[in-house]
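ok trying again, last paste got cut off:
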Amino acid sequence: MTFLTDVEEVDVDIEEFNELVGYDETYRPQGFTRVADKRLNQLSGEESVETAIADLTDAGERVHPVDDEDDGPAPDLADKLQAASTDGNAHEEFEKLVAKAFSRLGCAADWIEGGGDTDVEIRSPEHVVVEVKARGNGRVNSLEVTNVDKHRRQRGADHAIVVAPGFAPKVIDNAETTELTTIAVDDLVELLDRRDEYAVPPEEILALLTRSGAFQDDRLDLLDEYIQDRIDAGETLLAVIRALERADGAVETAEDVRWIVVGMEDSNDIPTTEEVRSALQLLAHPSVGAVEQAEEGYRVTTDYENGIQLVRSLADVVQPPGRKG
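nice, full thing came through this time. structure:
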């Protein structure tokens, strides 16, 4: 027994359908038939099942997975976003650019073309729908929250985001009491800048974007604090490498390493023993191998210049104190 929901009737030419999914040209369905997953996964030249059906019927939505590999530098995307957001004739272009922006932020995103549904769907790291509103006057003065929520429920998403050039105060106030987030294009550009410069993990960005209400300066401040904590954590790793490089032989304990750091640093911002111990554990991990831990203590296995490149390569796992990598 099979149960179906949201059934939509379509009329597709049988010969074209057989060619699409790889059936023999003489095949004729007998009653209800489900197309095998392996055939759906091998759709020739199509981006999704929905797009394939839409192309055959010349109707419905088309789902376009988005990546940013051919998108150029982030400033170019920012300029295009800001220009399209206030161009009433560029709504479709604005949708595609917003999808590109979320892809650049590290999300797996689809642009949904047509169909009267949501405009962008984020599949990971969280399931979120994004409504895109271009406005020639620079801001959204009213928002049908029930429609946005309907689209969220239709997609089975956990949250909804609305992107526009700006929002009237009453729209921002309404967002505070609903399960959606409003974000102006300028703030989206700020997120792109931080992702491009500091490789902020998409999980961290989505955690702020999926808080109900308006995304404003207070959330950017929280992100900046997180970024500074990560920078500090990276500097602690480099200080530990430099201290072990300067030591004459192995250093027995994390406390001993810290005292070497104290002797090297001019500032008062010296890592704690616990922070040094955490840095040593990460650097001594087999997947990193920058520090060797033996019975006599810790010994560095690389030099400081290579350590700089190593820390840069660890951007996704270097975490502020109190966070798990």
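cool. The mean pLDDT is 84. The longest helix spans residues 217-246.
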